[in-house]
Amino acid sequence: MLRYRENPHDLLHRLDAMFKAGRKHPTGIMLAMPIDVVLTMQYLLRRGLRVPEDVSIVACNSDYYFDLIQPKITHYIYPEKKFSQRLARYLLQLLHNGSVPAVRHLILTELHAGESLAFVDGMPARTKTKR
């Protein structure tokens, strides 16, 4: 699940809908907002579900506390240095030339492997995390 939401209650209602008794629940959740990670982990804990054994969690953003909580959250890191360098280069080009070519430039994020992502059986042993 990846979803922008206006308030925390929307997230909790969506989690309730996904984890209704008698239904097969999702095995993984992708969250956009760092606070949603905390809310989701609390929600799963109250329901007796374990991360990552029962449900994997991956965050789209980075936050300083992702490595402090247990299990450490698997998340994406935005390469700020690369973005800053590229932005500075385009600003200098704009100052010198008066324009910048209107083309798309992709800046890829990096996956920071935490402990909140379970691996599927059959994956090579070297990529599995120790539990």
What are the salient characteristics of this protein?
four-stranded mixed beta sheet; alpha/beta; single chain; 131 residues; elongated; disordered C terminus
General description of the model:
- The chain is of the alpha/beta class.
- 32% of the residues lie in helices and 11% in strands.
- The chain contains three helices and four strands, in the order H-E-H-E-E-H-E.
- It has helices spanning 8-18, 34-46, 80-97; strands at 28-31, 56-59, 74-77, 110-112.
- The protein has a four-stranded mixed beta sheet.
- Strand 1, helix 2 and strand 2 (56-59) form a beta-alpha-beta unit.
- Helix 1 packs across helix 2 (34-46).
- The chain is elongated.
- The model is unreliable at 126-131 (pLDDT under 50).
Overall number of strands = 4
Low-confidence stretches: 126-131
- N-to-C SSE string, H for helix and E for strand: HEHEEHE
What percent of residues are in strands? 5-15%
Distance between the termini: 25 Å
Q: Which sequence of strands runs across the widest sheet?
A: 1-2-3-4
Largest sheet: 4 strands, mixed
Structural class: alpha/beta
Chain-averaged pLDDT:
82
Cα-based radius of gyration, to the nearest Å: 19 Å
The helix fraction, in percent, is 25-40%
Total count of helical runs of at least 4 residues: 3
